[in-house]
């Protein structure tokens, strides 16, 4: 695939920047909606599905690193695009859950409470930041700008992996407090 022209590059950068702002703002608005929608009891399973999605994403990210270190670009591309797809699915499931359910308060006490909140806050902040990095990394890879892709993934990979792993850890810490 050939590299996009500068005019197209500016358009793509603008779209990436807009999405990187619009997605977290949309999620924040959804979280702030007090009137919850009833989509059925199936939505109570979404946090569990999200934990599976985050776990799979973590594994795929590590596989992507492994494949690229082995020089297997096709396998790397497949697993990374699958990780990107899972991230998109996670976002949809996350929004669906939070427009149908109140946030679950953490009930842990003692030393685990500040650990939980540190992980939660760092997870949330970095999940906002990683959107821009992931979109740029995917764009650079798909447009054949491999050097720019490599420079971007130096930051994208550890942030995305941290967000995926801490998403699972936060889930396990709060899971006992979900209403079952």
TrEMBL record:
InterPro entries: DUF420 (IPR007352). Keywords: Membrane, Transmembrane, Transmembrane helix. The chain crosses the membrane at residues 12-33, 45-67, 79-97, 117-135, 155-174. It comes from the Bacteria. This is Membrane protein. The keyword Transmembrane helix applies.
